[in-house]
Design a protein that fits this description.
Elements lengths: L4 E6 L7 H14 L4 E6 L1 H6 L5 H18 L6 E5 L4 H11 L4 H6 L1 H9 L1 H4 L5 H4 L1 H10 L5 E4 L4 H18 L7 E4 L28 H9 L20 H9 L2 H12 L5 H27 L2 H29 L7
Parallel strand pairs: 1-2, 2-3, 4-5
The structure holds tryptophan.
């Protein structure tokens, strides 16, 4: 059987939160034991909608690597690399640009939604770079012959676009590229502290993996609860309470059922309930905070992980580039 290669990535635009943990990181930690895994810090992609904020992207590259290491991504198993340090990805992007129409990019549902959200940045006309980021993402994936892309639902149109590019490339130049498959992570999307369907940095409703104990407690105390419940003795409805929702994630199943029952009977005060939850989240994240502290105290070790990962990724991308150039008859003077 062919050795399967996995590629995933994140835009370095902010630290990772518990939504990322349940949504993708936990899965990656598992997959790194089973597959050849590449994890890209997509700084070039981050710049497509943060071109005016290079400091933000720069700073978050490191934050994200620390987040990866803290949750147990093992650099001996998974290859962590920085996108901009692999010029082959940019080169492939140029070649693939010929294989995609502007109309097709404009129809891409993910791109469409994002453009609508970014009116303030782009005004009336979106940049060439942003419109084309699916092409660059296709280069990310194919540079490593990745065949499995574990992603969330929002990324499916990007993987579909990649598959089209691969088919077109292979039909014109010969079978060089591997057509990837998206694998939807079974894990659930985590709601925000405010009850919003999505936990997100821009929404200000997230608990970050790197939050301190004080920050976690403060955030949990502000979580949205049943608005009809004023006094402890009021009968509560845990179904509309974010504290109960998080108890379900961080407190054992039996404990969670007890929480709900006591809430419904008016036997559990919200403040005590929140304190208990905050403590459970603090304990859950403790090993991650400790691991993060270990690496924060050893910046050279982190440098080494990124440099070695990027070197390994680059040598793989170079090999792909050679095959691509040969297929495209660009292998002059070899
Ligand atoms: N677009 C992805 C995101 O916003 C990040 C990403 C970049 C990615 N390159 C990728 C994901 C390649 C999977 C495969 O989260």
């Amino acid at each position: 059987m062919e050795n399967k290669i996995i590629l995933t990535g994140d835009r370095p635009t902010g630290r990772l939160h518990i939504g990322h943990f349940f949504g993708s990181l936990a899965n990656r930690v598992k997959l790194q034991d089973e597959y050849e895994t590449y994890i890209e810090i997509a700084d070039v992609q981050a710049l497509t909608d943060n071109f005016n904020n290079p400091d933000k992207v720069r700073k978050n590259v490191r934050e994200i690597v620390l987040d990866y290491l803290s949750v147990g991504i093992d650099p001996n198993k998974a290859t962590i690399f920085i996108q901009s340090m692999i010029p082959e990805i940019a080169e492939l992007t140029v070649f693939y640009s010929n294989l995609v129409t502007i109309a097709r990019l404009e129809r891409n549902p993910t791109v469409k939604t994002e453009i609508a959200q970014k009116k303030e940045l782009f005004g009336e006309s979106v940049t060439y770079g942003f419109l084309g980021y699916p092409v660059s993402q296709a280069a990310d994936i194919t540079a490593f012959h990745a065949s499995i892309i574990p992603v969330g639902e929002d990324q499916l149109p990007l993987i579909e676009q990649c598959r089209e590019i691969v088919r077109k490339f292979n039909s014109i130049y010969g079978e060089v590229l591997v057509e990837p498959e998206a694998v939807l992570s079974k894990s659930k999307r985590i709601k925000g502290l405010d009850g919003n369907e999505k936990m997100g940095k821009s929404l200000g409703n997230a608990i970050y993996l790197s939050d301190s104990e004080e920050e976690i407690t403060k955030k949990v105390m502000s979580a949205v609860t049943d608005p009809n419940r004023i006094k402890k003795t009021d009968l509560g409805n845990p179904d509309i309470c974010m504290v109960a929702y998080y108890h379900n994630l961080f407190t054992g199943k039996e404990e969670y059922e007890k929480v709900c029952e006591e809430c419904r009977k008016g036997e559990r005060g919200c403040v005590a309930c929140k304190k208990e939850l905050a403590n459970n989240i603090i304990e859950f994240l403790r090993p991650m905070r400790e691991k993060r502290a270990y690496y924060e105290a050893r910046p050279e070790e982190v440098d080494k992980i990124i440099i070695q990962g990027t070197e390994k990724a680059r040598s793989k991308a170079k090999q792909t580039m050679e095959d691509v150039k040969k297929a495209m008859k660009l292998d002059y003077f070899n």
